Amino acid sequence: MKSLNKILTGIVGIALSFLAAAVLIKLQGNSPIDAYRALFNYGLASWFSLSSTLNNATPLILTGMSAAIAFSSNVVNLGEPGQLIVGALTAALLGYYLPIPGVLGIFVILIISGIIGGLYGGLAGVLKKYYKMDEFITTLMLNFIADYLTLYLATYPFLDEKSYVPATHMIKREFFLPTINGINISFFIAIFMVFVSFFVVTYLKKGYEWRMMGHNYDFSKIGGCKNEENLIWVMFYTGFLSGLAGALLILGGTQHRFIKGIGANYGWDGVMLAIVGGNGVIETSVFAVFFGFLKAGGIGMEFEVFIPSEFTMVLQAIIVLLVVSTRSTISYYSDKIKASLKAKRVVKSSD
Amino acid sequence: MRDSFSSATPILLAALGGTFTYYANVFNIAMEGMMLIGAFFGVLGSYLFQSWAMGMLFAVISGAVVALIFSAFALSLKTDEFLTGIGINMLALGGTTYLLRNIFDVKGAFISPRIESLPTWDIPILNQIPILSQILNNHPFIVYVSILLALLLEVIIFHTKFGLRLRATGEDPETTRSLGINPNKMKFTSILLSGILSSMGGTYLSLGYVTLFSENMSNGRGWISLAIIILVKGRPLGILLMSLLFGFFESVTFTLQNFNIPPQITSMLPYLITLVVLFLYSSNKSKEEK
Lengths: 351, 290
Fold this sequence. Notes:
The structure holds two protein chains of two kinds.
Chain A: H1 2-27, H2 32-45, H3 47-72, H4 80-97, H5 102-131, H6 135-155, E1 179-180, E2 183-184, H7 185-203, H8 205-215, H9 217-222, H10 227-252, H11 266-276, H12 281-305, H13 311-350
Antiparallel strand pairs in A: 1-2
Helix pairs in contact in A: 1-13, 2-3, 2-12, 3-7, 3-10, 3-11, 3-12, 4-5, 4-6, 4-10, 4-11, 5-6, 5-10, 7-8, 7-10, 8-10, 11-12, 11-13
Chain B: H1 2-23, H2 31-49, H3 52-76, H4 81-104, E1 109-111, H5 130-136, H6 141-159, H7 161-171, H8 173-178, H9 183-209, E2 212-214, H10 221-231, H11 236-257, H12 263-267, H13 269-289
Antiparallel strand pairs in B: 1-2
Helix pairs in contact in B: 1-6, 1-9, 1-10, 1-11, 2-3, 2-4, 2-9, 2-10, 3-4, 3-9, 6-7, 6-11, 7-9, 10-13, 11-13
GO cellular component, one term (chain A): plasma membrane
InterPro entries (chain A): ABC_transp_permease (IPR001851)
Pfam family, one (chain A): BPD_transp_2
């Protein structure tokens, strides 16, 4: 019921945002109908567009889930961009230097990159536990540090001299993740992680403790959960997911190397997705696919109607604001109406 | 030293704007976006009319409009402030890049001789003193305005009726309501002021520091401002000092690049400093508690 509610308000919000965006497109002198037709054609209409939607959604599913699990445990992990990029660089380096062949190698790369991302996230957790440093600020600052650090590593020690922009060497061909009918294997890995996360959060004792921590911090402490330790675990696990997203970008993407600007916005989109999905693992993934559709379709709008692809970013922001505000407005005013109805009943019965 | 003041100014302005929202208990993480929008519209206004004043006006109006949007969602529609802020930041980043492509037809950065930068001030008495004159004189005028503003804010927030009401709203909105003050109105005013100041900080970035607009040119300065506010618990004079500290390290960044240290490493400095300051601050506090 609750998740149905989330999806319904989501649809209302999305419809409203498409209307708002239509006005913007019209103001720019383009036809909204043509624009949306292009969006649909490139995002859903054919098997090719559908598969590119799903491929686009892959990193979003993971970063969205990462943010959602953190938020629902009352941990503010805004470090997804940093964790993702650290994981991506790790995968790019391992992909070039790792001597283990084939599928086993892929497995090792994914696990190690995830763990590096997790450690990067866990660092913020450790700083919080031992030094009481607000994870809101630390994760943010760690993002910028990761950004410059990886760029430094790709520009100096690990630079591929043949490339024109700062980039690492291309990974070995045997580590490229194959596609099945156009859908990259990485999408299925992401979906697999959705199930794993759902299981962890719903059925494992640790996951229960995380949720309790998010629900009522003091209560879970009295109940015997080690909140501060759990915070580090949440940070590690959500960092792992983001790091994995970065690794899949390298192994399953199109570049197969670490390039300046890779993974731009995926981390922040994840944070927004978690918000739109109301911090549910499944709901967030559904919206991730929708954002993947916008990304794939946005290219269509650029090709056919000459609307710059940055417009999808604007559209995404409008959607986030309107979906969340629709939900909060509805719940706020329905609570108010309920309360006033109740008050009337009480007044009547006392007459 | 001279550069310290330049680098500190945008952070200082945004942070001062943020103090209003800090005391009104509005969680304002939209400063980053407000700065970026201010930077863009400052350039746009300056370009269209070839006048820095119009640039400033454009920036202030755009900051006010963003504040209106923020308030509409956060106050009227009861959207979570945190979410609204993130949405606004995304809108700013996507919107300015989109407009950059749509209006000027460029990607990356926009430079034009038609953009007029902010005028600098030659202060009469100061230009007589040899060393101070080199450090402090002939900055764009916003530098001086923002330093004066920091002092002024200390007075406004702690010694005026408005400041008292603002802090009361932050402490306990229901009690202030019973005293006949509309807490939503106070919150709205604080958001509006922070929007205007943050966008002015952004204008300084695009018209004072340099004379161009580039994508995402605020580059985390709004976040650093927020971190500073939280660190000094909103005290305007503390903000002034911390901003200067950050400005100092940012200018050290440029100096270090002359010594063959890769720019990526030096660019990390401001963010590392934030962490170090936070670390020192937190470990001090936990010692006190023991």
